[in-house]
Structures are given as C-alpha cells and as structure tokens.
Amino acid sequence: MSIAKTDILNAFHYRHACKTYDPTKKISDEDFRFILETGRLSPSSFGIEPWKFLVIENQKIKTIIRDIAWGAKDKVTDCSHFVVVLVRQPKTLLADSEYVQHMMRDIHQLPEDILKMRQNFYRTFTEQDFSLTQDSKAFYNWACRQSYIAMANMLTSAAMIGVDSTPIEGFPLEKMDSILAEQGLYDPNTYKLSVMIAFGYRLNEPKAKTRQAFDDVVEWVK
C-alpha cells in the first residue's frame, strides 16, 4: 500500500476545528461509514477498545446538547453528523472483568495459556505500572486517552476526503454525562461520556493554520 506523503500532509493542513457548518450539505452514508470505520480500526492499549461511538440523529437529544454544551452550540444542529464518544467505566476494564475476558478470548482469540499471560501483563499494568485500579478517575482518564486516538484518526480520515470536523470538550462533563444517561443513551454503570465530535462541511474558509516551528517541538536525543 502506498499513499503519497503530500496527500497526507495536505489533509493535515486542510483540517481545522470548524466553527460554522453549512446546514445544507450532508456527508454521504458511504463517506461517514468510512470515517467511523477508521475509528473502529484504531489502536488502543492492550487492544482493549474501551470506546463506543453514538451517532446522534435524534433532534431532541441534539437540542439538549446544544443547550448545555457551550462548545457545541449551533454545530450540533448545523453539522451533517454528530458523534458522542463514550468510554467504558473502570470496573468493566479490570483484568478479571467480563469485558476484558471477552476481548481477549473472543475478539483477540488468544489461546488459553497466552490469554492468562496477557491478562497478567494487563493486571500488572493497571494495578502497578500506572496504578489505575487505585483511582477510578485515573482509570477513566486512561480510557479517554484511548478514545482520543480513535477520535484523531476519524478527524484525519475525514479531512482526507474533504470532510470538516470539530472535536468538542466544551461542556460540563458530569452534568452532560448524567443527562445523556438519563435520556437512555447508555447505561451509566457501563459507560461514561468522553468527548464529542461534529462532522460536516465548512460554511466559511478558516484562517491559515498556525503551529509552532518543527524545531520548537521536536528534539533529537542522541
């Protein structure tokens, strides 16, 4: 497989946090499924995939999000597609949990001896290396970091096919999480809100991209 480096860099230059969407333009089903697929195929620590993507089409839910999330505002109603990214609750990510066992046995299809070895590695990682099991907030933040890998891949793949996007953290987390769960979008014992993403087509051209110089952010350690 070969993709021109210039095409990839052009996508990164094209991508920006879209401020205003054209409500008359919609992403095709094929293109949006492609974007979601790049999220699904994203890497995660230990291959645990602690995420779930909710594509919000319900207008009532969109209105609720608009009224609470200051970072979403008109984006949630004007964009083509709006995604709420969830992560699994810490107790479902413990080494002995049903979900982790399911991932290792049914999805990764590990032989029993390899499964036990990998489970022990995961247990050491979560209990000792990163001390996640000692702090549920730390475990939640770790799961969120995994979901941001998937989000970044979706933002990039969208840009590569000319679709705009906006990653959204502008909302009161606990309040938004509670309300979305109360609306029946998910079981709060299993999932918690991580981040939200708007996808669509820009109404106005953005300002030129600004970033720090390469040598200011990259240091070679020899």
From TrEMBL:
Gene Ontology CC terms, in alphabetical order: cytosol
One GO BP: 2,4,6-trinitrotoluene catabolic process
The protein's enzyme class: oxidoreductase
Nitroreductase domain span: 14-201
Record keyword ATP-binding present: no
One Pfam family from the record: Nitroreductase
The enzyme's E.C. designation: 1.6.99.-
Needed co-factor(s): FMN
SUPFAM superfamilies: FMN-dependent nitroreductase-like
Keywords annotated in UniProt: Flavoprotein, FMN, NAD, NADP, Oxidoreductase
MF annotations from Gene Ontology: oxidoreductase activity, acting on other nitrogenous compounds as donors, with NAD or NADP as acceptor
UniProt family annotation: Belongs to the nitroreductase family.
Protein name listed in UniProt: Nitroreductase family protein
